[in-house]
Amino acid sequence: MKARCFQSERKFQEAEIYYQWMIQQGLNVHRALYNLGLMHSFFNIDLAASFLQKAIEIIETPTKIPQNAIKERVQIVYELTDKKLAATKTTGKGLRSFRVEKNGITYRQWYLEDTVRKFSIYYIEYYLSLGKIFYVKYSRTRDPQWFEKAAFYFSKGLELHPNHYQKEKILELLESKSLTLDQKFLTFKVHHLKGVADEFPPVFY
User: Fold this and answer.
1) Whole-angstrom Cα distance, residue 39 to residue 15?
2) What pLDDT, on the 0 to 100 scale, is given for residue 120?
3) pTM of the entire structure?
4) From residue 77, how far is each of 44, 88, 112 by CA, in Å?
5) Judging by beta carbons within 10 Å of its beta carbon (0-12, 13-18, 19+), is residue 34 exposed, middle or buried?
6) Beta sheet of 95-102, edge-to-edge order
7) Which of 2, 30, 122, 168 could bond 58 through an S-S bridge, CB–CB 3.0 to 4.6 Å?
8) Top-confidence residue, 84 or 21
């Protein structure tokens, strides 16, 4: 969240420090890579594409379950009371998860494929963002290879979440192969931590 705050304030050097920490710790690496990709799209779209491709590789890799891991299904339900937002956990339902231990701390990790399906509204942006970057390269170079790559990732994204609000614009671009892009279409969504696969260890103050 600290990285995301810095990113929203366009303090990109500070944001990158926190995203790189997430990557070094092996926690929600896909989300850190995704947001890094968006951040670097301002300066180097090839580097941005590299970050996004790595993020997509991670979310498309089936979850590996450690031997003797404690598996469970947990559904977290949020209820707004008069005083606070309360969270209750119901076992036996919801996303699949298991317990892992890192640096002596035990915490929960969800099956990534479950979170991708459950929160497809977020994960479609991984594909669409990369598709947009490749389409920008196509519009600048007129090289059809970039159009094909853009079309590939647009299609994969819409397979995951068919009702995206930019669907009609994407289909229109794929049909027309227009070299002119609406700036509103080139919006990117910096993501928070909803839908991530790793539960962060407790933070003590």
Assistant:
1) 9
2) 96
3) 0.88
4) 41, 5, 19
5) buried
6) 85-91, 71-80, 95-102, 105-110
7) 30
8) 21
